[in-house]
Amino acid sequence: MLDTDQLRSFLAIVDTGSFTRAAERVNKTQSAISMHIRRLEEQLGVELFVKQGRGVRLSSHGERLIDHARVILQAEAAALAGIAGKGLTGRVRLGIPDDYAEPFLPAILGNFRSRNPLVEIAVVCESSVLLSERVRARDLDLALVTDCASIPEVEVIREEPLMWVTRQPMSFGKDAVVPLAVGGPTCAWRQQAETALTRAGMEYRIVLVSNNYAAIAPIVDSGLAITLLPQGAMRPGMRALDESDGLPRLPRSRMGLIRAPTNQTREARALADEIRAVVSLKQAA
Coil, helix or strand for 7? Predict the structure, then answer.
């Protein structure tokens, strides 16, 4: 039988990308994590990780083990909840902006579900301002938001550079008109972009307005406009523009967690803990 503690350590490495951060995730020493992996490899008779430079990467056997490990841990958690009465079984309503959903939501939900398979999670994607209103109205239990002055009682859990983003090589002279694909007037990133360009004496025009990144992406991909994203939310293939490309420096972006102004359920508190763990582990320099 495969040891679930060893599988938990294995998945912690997969999710965090580091033996050190995995040790923090499962509250064990790094040597204990390494021992778990050695014993798991000995039992399976294969290497789960192979050296790559100074680090390691998953082997083909390790990649195949991921889904099996998650199913086993989910079954263990379901048994504890359903038979022993241990574990969580309620429902949580989570809000998250579209820009954060793709880079963060899979890890948040995957990790949480592996520990709490009987908890139902409803996810809503809206702008930060609308999410804040829904949390205050108790329509949502908690939400990830872009921290700004208009949203009270934000617990800041991540801070990183805000970037001008494109997929095409672009540069702007002093007299250039910068094409932007951005969110609505209440979007903090849009406000910061307009302020930075105005202070730099640069003209700009809004090519597209949308709070849905799926609508912005094709315009950016085609080179018709640039947009703004925090460093950790940049998608593969994207490139950041900076002062060397003629654009002004942007302020740092902050991601915050807000919660409904009532007694939080155990399920909501557990999801908040998972959000903090995933987001902080991906903290940018």
Answer: helix
Angle at 131 between CA 89 and CA 107, to 5 degrees: 50
* Locus of tokens 């009465």: 85
What homologous superfamily does CATH list for 159-252? Periplasmic binding protein-like II (3.40.190.10)
Instruction: Show pLDDT as tens, one digit a residue, over the chain (285 residues).
Output: 889 999 989 988 887 778 887 887 777 899 999 999 999 999 999 999 988 777 788 999 999 999 899 888 878 877 777 676 667 778 899 999 988 888 889 889 888 887 787 788 999 998 888 999 999 999 999 999 987 667 888 888 888 999 999 988 899 988 899 999 999 888 889 999 999 999 999 999 999 999 888 899 999 999 999 999 998 888 888 899 999 999 999 999 989 999 988 778 888 989 998 898 888 755 443
User: What is Dmax (Cα atoms) for the chain?
Assistant: 69
Nearest residue to 203 (alpha-carbon basis) of 180, 221, 229, 222: 180
* Cα–Cα distance measured from residue 155 to residue 105, given in angstroms and rounded to the nearest whole number: 18
Q: Percent helix, strand and coil across the chain, each rounded to 5?
A: 45, 25, 30
CATH of domain 1-85: 1.10.10.10
User: So where are the chain's domains?
Assistant: 1-85, 159-252
Q: Determine the residue type at 252.
A: R
Structural contact between residues 111 and 277, judged by C-beta atoms closer than 8 angstroms: yes
End-to-end Cα, the chain, rounded Å: 41
How far is Cα 188 from Cα 159, in angstroms, rounded to an integer?
Answer: 14
Q: Are 262 and 153 in contact (CB under 8 A)?
A: no
**Of 130, 166, 160, whose CA–CA distance to 145 is shortest?**
130
What's the number of CA atoms in the CB half-sphere (13 Å) around residue 110? 19
